[in-house]
């Protein structure tokens, strides 16, 4: 009697991910949540700065019955940065998860983010041209409405190119997780955004700064035409350059990595942090405009003085309320006999 031993095969039928992947996902989500809190604080600072800038805009317009041309461009730039900040709240409200919407709605959100970002960058280029060459007042470039409209038109056309590269296969009614700059969009989208959002505008700005230095050396004039908006322009341009360059290079890197393999939880968390860095640039720009632009800074100081006077007035009334005025009564106790 012979017995044959059958091999015992152990097969895992569970589709659950390995424990290491689960631990990495939890750690990545914890990192994103902490970054979300930090960005939420930056967003509050940006919103508060935007409110003070709006107050200063109204005060300057009422006082001068109009605005200086460069100030108008600066207010328009601040408006686009505020729009970008408001659009970023869709990320803050859902992190570490993502907003779930239709692909058409996600494409519209990404289009508006790119439009606000490019409008701000091209307005910086226009401000750099004005500070460098100071065109005459009768030229078409001195009309704020025409300049802002031209900037919006150019940005709209660039966003159409980005939308076509981003949404190669768009199913309008399908619901999915919304990522503004997905790595799955491919390298062409990432490279196009790097060119339109970093290389082209900042190479033009670098050329304008070099031209301003050459003009200053030849004509013994002041740098950037001696305008008081020069420090604001340089500070804002430096912040946007760092944030946009970091975001676009990380997007190109993530798109190339996604072509070979799926991104790990830590890589996905890094891409979310990169998105927060891009949006943080808008918050920092609003704070810098408020602190470095003289009319905005004066409006901030005026608001602080009003708040201080109101607090002192309330404290004075509370103090005088508890002080009772002395009452003197004179009683005549002497009797008179007539």
From TrEMBL:
Keyword Ligase carried by entry: no
This protein's record includes keyword Membrane: yes
Keyword line: Membrane, Transmembrane, Transmembrane helix
Organism superkingdom: Eukaryota
Membrane-spanning residues: 37-55, 67-87, 107-133, 145-165, 185-211, 232-253, 273-292
Protein name, as recorded: G-protein coupled receptors family 3 profile domain-containing protein
């Amino acid at each position: 009697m012979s017995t044959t031993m059958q091999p015992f095969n152990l097969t895992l039928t569970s589709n659950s991910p390995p424990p290491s992947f689960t631990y990495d996902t939890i750690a990545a989500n914890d990192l994103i949540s902490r970054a979300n809190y930090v960005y939420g604080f930056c967003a509050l600072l940006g919103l508060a700065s935007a409110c003070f800038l709006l107050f200063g805009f109204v005060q300057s317009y009422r006082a001068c019955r109009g605005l200086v041309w460069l100030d108008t461009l600066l207010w328009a730039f601040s408006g686009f940065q505020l729009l970008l900040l408001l659009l970023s709240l869709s990320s803050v409200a859902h992190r570490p998860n993502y907003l779930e919407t239709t692909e058409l709605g996600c494409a519209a959100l990404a289009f508006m983010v790119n439009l606000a970002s490019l409008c701000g960058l091209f307005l910086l280029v226009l401000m750099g041209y004005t500070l460098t060459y100071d065109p005459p007042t009768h030229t078409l470039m001195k009309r704020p409405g025409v300049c802002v409209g031209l900037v919006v038109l150019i940005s709209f056309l660039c966003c159409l190119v980005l939308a076509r590269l981003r949404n190669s296969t768009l199913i309008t009614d399908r619901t999915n997780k919304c990522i503004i700059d997905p790595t799955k969009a491919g390298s062409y989208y990432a490279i196009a955004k790097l060119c339109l959002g970093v290389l082209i505008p900042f190479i033009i700005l670098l050329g304008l700064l070099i031209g301003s230095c050459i003009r200053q050396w030849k004509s013994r004039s002041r740098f950037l035409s001696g305008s008081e908006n020069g420090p604001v322009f340089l500070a804002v341009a430096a912040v946007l350059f760092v944030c946009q360059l970091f975001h676009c290079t990380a997007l190109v890197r993530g798109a190339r990595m996604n072509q070979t393999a799926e991104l790990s939880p830590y890589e996905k968390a890094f891409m979310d942090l990169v998105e927060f860095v891009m949006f943080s640039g808008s918050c920092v720009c609003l704070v810098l405009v408020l602190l470095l632009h003289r009319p905005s800074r004066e409006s901030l100081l005026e608001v602080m003085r009003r708040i201080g006077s109101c607090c002192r007035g309330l404290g004075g009334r509370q103090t005088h309320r508890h002080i009772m005025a002395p009452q003197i009564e004179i009683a005549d106790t002497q009797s008179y006999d007539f």
